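[worker-b] picked up task from shared queue
[worker-b] task type: protein-ligand structure
[worker-b] ligand name resolved to NAI; SMILES cross-checked against name lookup, match
[worker-b] sequence length check passed
[worker-b] input payload:
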Amino acid sequence: MIHVLVSDSMSSEGLQPILNAPQINVVQKKVEEVEEELHLFDAILVRSATKVTEELLKKMTNLKIVGRAGVGVDNIDIDAATKYGVVVINAPNGNTISTAEHTFAMMASLLRHIPQASVSVKSNEWNRNAFVGTELYGKSLGIIGFGRIGGELAKRARVFGMDVLVYDPFLTKDRAEKIGVKICAFDELLAGADIITVHTPLIKETKGILNKESIAKAKKGVYLLNCARGGIIDEEGLIYHLKNKHVAGAALDVFEVEPPVNNKLLEFENVIVTPHLGASTKEAQLNVAAQVTQEVLNYLDGKPVTSSINLPTLTKELFDKIQPFYQLAKKMGNIVSQCMRVPVQEIAIQYEGTVAELETSFITKALLSGFLGARVDITVNEVNAGMIAKERGITFSEKITENKSGYENCLEVKVFGDDQTFVLKGTHVPNYGERIVGINDFNIDFYPTGHLMYIQHQDKPGVIGRVGKVLGDHEINIATMQVGRKVKGGEAIMMLAFDRVLDPSLTKQLASYEEIVSVKTIDL
Ligand SMILES: NC(=O)C1=CN([C@@H]2O[C@H](COP(=O)(O)OP(=O)(O)OC[C@H]3O[C@@H](n4cnc5c(N)ncnc54)[C@H](O)[C@@H]3O)[C@@H](O)[C@H]2O)C=CC1
Ligand SMILES: O=C(O)C(=O)COP(=O)(O)O
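[worker-b] inference finished, payload out:
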């Protein structure tokens, strides 16, 4: 049974696929209400209210995926999730229109004093002179952060006859020209805009991007909007400029602390507020819940996810192509790790042929996870493999080389450890399966599965027979056996497969023979 925790309110229509899945138990409760069962959940679905901290992740020992039904992931500790091998996905497109529309509504409301006028009329006043507004037409709107929401907002502003100034270090000229906005430097936007709105993520570069100093560079009488994240406009700085009337008014959907208890901003008549409603429409909520549900189901089913924050994004088509190499790489990493039982400093992976045309970074992570999984005591997967390798001082690299092996595709991993190197080559043969085709300088050909024994020996008569006899004496059936050598009478190798795990005493016995150089067991 798979257990999924939905800890923030979400569209039940969007959640239908998991609610209806017979093998999934869905619990719709806040984290605090399931403290005792946290270790059971395979997935957690959240909006912005649940804080997915390292502390929570530590308690959710079975967790595989965090699904954010929305855009902003600043409530999720991505580094910690990555460290614990938990994939984080979001639903980046589902609430774009709703948030852009909400920002536009806030802007119009702010300049026409609609919330204040509404309260006044409902208090039996009829004070038309108190609410004289300002037109949007002909004004300059400065947008900081020109992604999905910023872009949709700009289109609407252009239709209303506004000029749009944009500051976004990652914006291309092409995109700006298509929407008809002017790319500006930050200070240029501040100096030229009548209204400024922020649409960046909350990250260290954007935290307090509008603060006491930068707001002072804006036009006197500027209006400010924040429908992105509390903290992008520094609240102390905003309060300072509201007091000295440099800022004519502000519209805020988000706050540094939510809900904003005892927040001085709420005391200003010219500050209008909503309780983080940007994405709160039926349409957006259905979109984000449906998107995130599908992604979580895919991931739990071993299928690709398309909007992961801490994994390379793969389409279904690419994932299907990668899948055989992913499995092969994982096994190769595991074999190498078991054959090189010494500290390792470097892992170099080479890709040849058709595999080199795929998303090799994903395959590299699979190989690393196979390697590390065999030697560390924590969950290692493609999400955290790179991070764990670095933590343990193991450097890794990948290279695409011209096809020298003669196979349609070939992966080669070379591991450098204390005074030792180990090389393993593998290929995937369509309709046949994974094959290991090289160990160090030896050509070999075996299917990497089950319980294996790798023997290095001298190519002398009787060695194979002796190995067979020892195993036979212990009633051990050899399932398959492959032998490889470079020159007659020189170094040789054997790879044997068994149906069960071998007793370590057998390894010792075989290794004691003069012609046998080393014996290693490998369990896959
Ligand atoms: N109030 C609400 O309910 C909602 C709020 N949001 C917030 O809105 C934010 C934006 O959402 P989207 O437009 O979908 O994201 P997006 O990723 O499409 O756009 C963000 C833009 O910010 C830009 N950016 C990054 N660093 C910057 C910097 N230092 N200076 C200027 N620009 C920078 C990026 O280049 C990107 O173009 C989200 O991160 C989220 O926090 C999103 C949805 C609903
Ligand atoms: O998608 C986002 O980034 C949002 O801010 C929406 O937040 P919510 O899901 O409404 O709590």
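[worker-b] attaching auto-annotations
[worker-b] The chain has a mean pLDDT of 94.
[worker-b] releasing lock
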